[in-house]
Amino acid sequence: MSTTTWSADELRGIGAATELQVASYRQDGSLRPYITIWTVAVGDAVYIRSAYGPGNGWFRRAIDAGSGRIRAGGVERDVEFHHLEAGDPAHADIDAAYHSKYDQYGQSIVGTVTGEHSTRTTLQADPLAER
User: Fold this and answer.
1) What CA dihedral angle connects 76, 83, 88 and 11, to 10 degrees?
2) What does residue 88 show for φ and ψ, rounded to 5 degrees?
3) What are 48-79's pLDDT values in tens digits?
4) pLDDT, tens digit (0-9, with 9 covering 90-100), for 96-107
5) What does the alpha-carbon distance between residue 63 and residue 117 come to, in Å, rounded to a whole number?
6) What distance in Å separates the CA atoms of residue 30 and residue 68, rounded to the nearest whole number?
7) Which pTM value belongs to this model?
8) Is 1 a residue whose pLDDT tops 70?
9) Would you list the DSSP string of 21-75?
């Protein structure tokens, strides 16, 4: 399958959703159970971060599988996971989006997905063409 782009409606739905559910595919093609996390839409991209570092199970499985499925804000799509490099300039905008969306929950919580440590656990979720 090939990647495609998010529609404006999909980006609005995902961006407005407080939570996103993410699951990666197993080698046999079956879908692992969904895990609920936070997400932001920045520009024309959807980003997710591991609040508990690179050792978090869902994050490791997403990296290993390279693809999975997300659902949020009325959108459910197969995606390809791309690990964003630590030096990517998009991190500042991603941090700002997380702060704007989640600061209401307090710095100790939003701090788990923002800042320098979060650059190691940032994935861009790109939609795959419909099957």
Assistant:
1) 0
2) -65, 130
3) 999 999 999 999 999 999 999 999 999 999 99
4) 999 999 999 999
5) 17
6) 10
7) 0.95
8) no
9) EEEEBPTTSPBPPPEEE-EEEETTEEEEE-TT-TT-HHHHHHHHH-EEEEEETTE
